[in-house]
Amino acid sequence: MAGRGELTEAAPEADAASAAVAKIRSRKDGAAVPLDDLDRRVLNLMQGSFPIAPRPYERVAELGEISEAEVMSRVQRLLEKRIIRQVTPIFDTRALGYSSMLVAAKVDPENPHRAAQVINQHPGVSHNYLRNHEFNLWFTIATEPDSELGLQGTLEVLAREAGAESVRQLPTLKLFKIRMDLEMEGDTKALATAAQATEPIELDPSPTTSSISP
Predict the structure, then answer these.
(1) What pLDDT is stored for residue 202 in this prediction?
(2) What sign for the dihedral angle of Cα 99, 103, 107, 111?
(3) Mean pLDDT of 90-114
(4) Which end of the chain has less Cβ packing within 10 Å, N or C?
(5) 56 within 8 A of 21, measured Cβ to Cβ
(6) Distance (Å, rounded) from C-alpha 141 to C-alpha 134?
(7) What is the pTM of this model?
(8) If you ran DSSP here, which 8-state letter would residue 185 be given?
């Protein structure tokens, strides 16, 4: 039940004890994976400097003063070692015309993971958390502009399939854009100053198209 993303919604704080049990990431070389200076440089560049370009790794290589092949090899190794979980874009759902919502659900406290598995099957669910509360499962969901069910209908189906006793929508009160780069070459002070919170830019929904290039 992992989460990802840069856009977050203001919501009540949950008790620290409410977090779901962390996923165990086993590594054949043990828990610690040694990183050299070049690994750390690549990890920094893969965060704030990864460009939108036909050959993004070529640009990362230029900034790191190494070859494109070396960057790709390093990234592949870091993926295999599970230092990097994934390399993926993060979209602003509002700009795509999607409807999104933070949702609190009241599910079977004896087996909340069953409900989580059902809910997580929806491709629009990006975050899912266990909470130490009567409403013990919180998740975020987005539905596409041309959804036949819409957000409300989708939640009704998910609630029924997950066996939720009750579901409550928690609309956004204030939207924050949080950029958090994990500083890999500096010290802990540099890491603490890496977080930036800025007012998000309001975007009008834009139509999307898809194409396949040869």
Answers:
(1) 65
(2) positive
(3) 92
(4) C
(5) no
(6) 20
(7) 0.61
(8) S
